Amino acid sequence: MAINYRKAAVIGCGFVGASIAFRFLQQGLFSHLVLVDANREKAEGEAIDLSDGLPYGAAMDITAGGYDDITDCGLVVITAGVNQKPDETRLQLIERNAAIMKSIIGEITARPFEGILLIVSNPVDVLTHVARELSGYPRERVIGSGTVLDTGRLKQLLGAELGVDSRNVHAFIVGEHGDSELPVWSGANVSGLGLDDFCRLRGLELHPPVRERIYREIRDSANEIIKRKGATYYGIAMAVGRIAACIVRDEHAILPISVALEGEYGLDRLALSIPSIVGKNGLEKVLEIPLDRTERAALDNSAGQLREVISGLKL
What we know:
Layout: E1 4-11, H1 15-27, E2 32-36, H2 40-51, E3 61-64, E4 73-78, H3 90-109, E5 116-119, H4 124-135, E6 142-144, H5 148-162, E7 169-170, E8 173-174, E9 182-183, E10 189-190, E11 193-194, H6 195-202, H7 208-229, H8 234-248, E12 253-262, E13 268-279, E14 282-286, H9 293-311
């Protein structure tokens, strides 16, 4: 079946899935958007609600559907998953979400789907690995939202600290999208000026305690939002919209998406969030960016924690 690159699907119509669908409507990237959910009525309700805004947005069809309706999609975004229960361990949560991912991937691979899978469900690096292993698709076609959101938080906080537009800040969060993620301070710059050089010109200093505070704010941001409003969804919707735009417009942009590693940084058999070139075919190239000794050790630690989790899964 021919791929319709202007057709996308969102599987899972909770807060995150619905927010991503709304972002797609705003962007006008697609001519047809299919919403899929275990609760068909929820998907139908979201489709109707979104369609009410079409006179003020881009021309597109927004429909509720099933797996037969996504076979020709160029992009399928998977957000389905469950939240952590009281007293439930992280591994138990991962096992439940891995089971959901297994069911979804089974439905997709039972059909002649040839598009790109974009995993957003958490823990995104683990579930990107699960989706890749279960689907058997080449790694170019199975990517995760990774630390694109975390990197956006880093840019925003650094911009505020430095008194400069966050869009001029270039820096990455890499590793796990979670507690073991790490900022690459050694490669951060402001419009091409190294961070230390920019600070000197600005009359500022980013002392280690300041960098640690920024890092902790990024790492703990989701928990702080959840405490106040119960869930996070707008930020990740913007991040996913950015990834989708790179694919649809074939931008060849560099984003820290979650990718299956095949020897990069000496790592394989797991997915990590690493700066990569993204275009119409999904992943184009994983970039082994320079890391200083401390950053490399932190990346290895992050990989070790993820590998331990993956080893406990029954796929």
